[in-house]
Fold this protein.
Amino acid sequence: MRLLNCSHQCNTVMKIIDNKLCRENKSHFKLNGDAKTKFNTEAEAVVKCYEINSIVNREYKMVAYKCPVCNYWHIGNSKKRLSLEEKEKFVIKYKEIRIKLKVW
């Protein structure tokens, strides 16, 4: 077993057992052991979800959630397959968001 400190400096220690991430901290870390990106607000995380869900090859929907470990916002796979209609909606919404961000 190896112990690694989180790169977010949130005092979280992840356990690596047989080169696999211990499941107790899985909401805070990617499967490869890297710390997930932290967002200060739900809005920032949701915008990133729109961006990722707009990708043509994206198969599963990404969602934003508040991390119980570090109290920041992260994004994760919802295990829900994206339909073509949903992807089109995400593309439209993400374009609208990008236009608003450029105006403000």
Observations:
- Strands lie at 2-5, 13-17, 20-21, 60-66, 73-81.
- The CA atoms of residues 47 and 98 lie 9 Å apart.
- Residues 84-103 form the longest helix (20 residues).
